[in-house]
């Protein structure tokens, strides 16, 4: 496969679009120029650093190095799940539920794919394990974050309704059932939209990257289908686990709503 190498000048041409966008934001007083430039700088630094780390991991392909990198990725994703939620569970619960849910879903789904589908030797080969985990983890994180945000926000806004249901004798599972279902549905919307639009509205990233690297389009499509199904499974299972654990945390053993367990950002 012949890959066209990009020079620093090529990347500078692409970066000029960000600078132009920031200038327009400043001119139109949109107020997002700083976030745009900071995000672009973070993207550049983070991707270059991870490229150096991956180069080292690929050269010394040992299970403990792959496991360490996977652990760091999951812990960082757990922090991102709660970073932008308006209402979040107090203490370590918000971070803990998000992290555990992603470990249960993303890690399990990725290991299943490596062992039962890809069948590489060794099964933890970092060239396959890290990219697969990264793609599943990134999308699962979005689904869990959306689901938890919807659950806590609705629980705060509809507190009176929940407490009225509890006063009528309903158990906590019944009092918050519709809110819980809405939260799980919201968490699944992004991946459902992505699967519905794949191939018609958009060419997903992995397939695009493989085609740019010279892979046959049919093989690239097979890998992309595999990844989309893994992401859907990880997102679905992760969101369901996270929403159910968080919903349980909103009530005590006597089925009383505990609003003090949810805090507001800022």
TrEMBL record:
<feature type="transmembrane region" description="Helical">
    <location>
        <begin position="6"/>
        <end position="24"/>
    </location>
</feature>
<keyword id="KW-0812">Transmembrane</keyword>
<feature type="transmembrane region" description="Helical">
    <location>
        <begin position="94"/>
        <end position="116"/>
    </location>
</feature>
<keyword id="KW-0472">Membrane</keyword>
<dbReference type="InterPro" id="IPR005226">
    <property type="entry name" value="UPF0014_fam"/>
</dbReference>
<feature type="transmembrane region" description="Helical">
    <location>
        <begin position="225"/>
        <end position="247"/>
    </location>
</feature>
<keyword id="KW-1133">Transmembrane helix</keyword>
<protein>
    <submittedName>
        <fullName>Iron export ABC transporter permease subunit FetB</fullName>
    </submittedName>
</protein>
<feature type="transmembrane region" description="Helical">
    <location>
        <begin position="63"/>
        <end position="82"/>
    </location>
</feature>
<comment type="similarity">
    <text>Belongs to the UPF0014 family.</text>
</comment>
<feature type="transmembrane region" description="Helical">
    <location>
        <begin position="188"/>
        <end position="213"/>
    </location>
</feature>
<dbReference type="Pfam" id="PF03649">
    <property type="entry name" value="UPF0014"/>
</dbReference>
<feature type="transmembrane region" description="Helical">
    <location>
        <begin position="128"/>
        <end position="148"/>
    </location>
</feature>
<feature type="transmembrane region" description="Helical">
    <location>
        <begin position="36"/>
        <end position="57"/>
    </location>
</feature>
